[in-house]
């Protein structure tokens, strides 16, 4: 299965300089947040495959006007094309916002999903906006990761943990892919192709 993961900034090659067929061959698109409604609607239309998304810290408008043709998996465990996919959007709370959480609030969101994860027999892909704590995050409140995401990775060992929020252009030492045990951690900033 070929998956396109996107986050934070529109990929010019997929939008501004779109060429017919550039999105052909993808079986699914996963959005890790902070992308415009119009961009997501364009991708799902041109790729002709499911687009699942979580909300980023700048996606408050999605609560009233979600992108059409796309499926919000924020706070959900879904099965699509045989893959168990868990979605947890939002960032660490650094100001008022509908998609920002304290560590305890995010831990409660994760706890609510544990029974469903167990019933499903685990999870294959975790899609988040924020990173896991101390794995490619920063110490600043606005770009800090969640500790409960580390516990989630260690306990359930998903094949992929895909996040956004940490822009690759923030610095030269920000990796797009990192390994933690059996889980490949992917920063989906702009775009990234995943073969499952």
Question: Would you give an account of this structure?
Answer:
- It is a single chain.
- The protein is α/β, with parallel strands linked by helices.
- The chain has a single domain (2-195), classed as Metallo-dependent phosphatases (Purple Acid Phosphatase, chain A, domain 2, 4-Layer Sandwich).
- It contains 3 helices and 13 strands, in the order ββαββββββαβαββββ.
- It has helices at 37-47, 103-120, 147-156; strands at 2-7, 28-31, 51-53, 71-72, 76-80, 83-88, 91-92, 100-101, 125-128, 160-163, 177-180, 183-187, 190-195.
- The strands form 3 sheets. It has a 6-stranded mixed beta sheet with strand order 5-6-9-10-12-11. A 5-stranded mixed beta sheet has the order 4-3-2-1-13, covered by helices on one side. Strands 7-8 form a two-stranded parallel ribbon.
- It is globular and about 45 Å long.
- The mean pLDDT is 95.
Which CATH-level-2 architecture?
4-Layer Sandwich
Q: Structural class of the secondary structure composition? A: alpha/beta
Main beta sheet, described? 6 strands, mixed
Query: How far is the N terminus from the C terminus?
Result: 5 Å
Would you identify the CATH H-level superfamily? Answer: Metallo-dependent phosphatases
- Content of β-strand: 25-35%
List low-pLDDT spans: none
Rg (C-alpha, Å): 15 Å
Number of domains: 1
User: What general outline do the C-alpha atoms trace?
Assistant: globular
Average pLDDT across residues? 95
What letter string, H or E per element, gives the SSE order?
EEHEEEEEEHEHEEEE
Number of strand elements: 13
The first-level CATH class name:
Alpha Beta
- How is the largest sheet built, in terms of strand order? 5-6-9-10-12-11
Number of helices: 3
The level of helicity is 10-25%
Query: Might you state the CATH topology name?
Result: Purple Acid Phosphatase, chain A, domain 2
């Amino acid at each position: 299965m070929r998956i396109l993961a996107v986050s934070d900034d529109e990929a010019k090659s997929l939008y501004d300089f779109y060429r017919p067929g550039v999105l052909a061959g993808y079986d699914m698109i996963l959005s890790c947040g902070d992308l415009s409604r119009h961009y997501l609607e364009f991708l799902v239309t041109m790729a002709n495959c499911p687009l699942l998304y979580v909300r980023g810290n700048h996606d408050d408008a999605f609560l009233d006007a979600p992108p059409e043709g796309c499926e919000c998996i924020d706070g959900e465990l879904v099965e699509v094309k045989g893959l168990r996919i868990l979605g947890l959007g939002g960032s660490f709370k650094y100001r008022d916002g509908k998609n920002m959480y304290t560590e305890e609030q995010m831990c409660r969101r994760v706890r609510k999903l544990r029974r469903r994860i167990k019933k499903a027999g685990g999870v294959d892909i975790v899609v988040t906006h924020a990173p896991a704590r101390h794995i490619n995050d920063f110490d600043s409140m606005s770009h800090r990761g969640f500790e409960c995401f580390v516990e989630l990775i260690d306990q359930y060992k998903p094949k992929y943990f895909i996040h956004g929020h940490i822009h690759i252009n923030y610095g030269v030492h920000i990796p797009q892919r990192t390994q933690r045990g059996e889980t490949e951690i992917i920063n989906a900033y702009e775009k990234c192709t995943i073969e499952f």
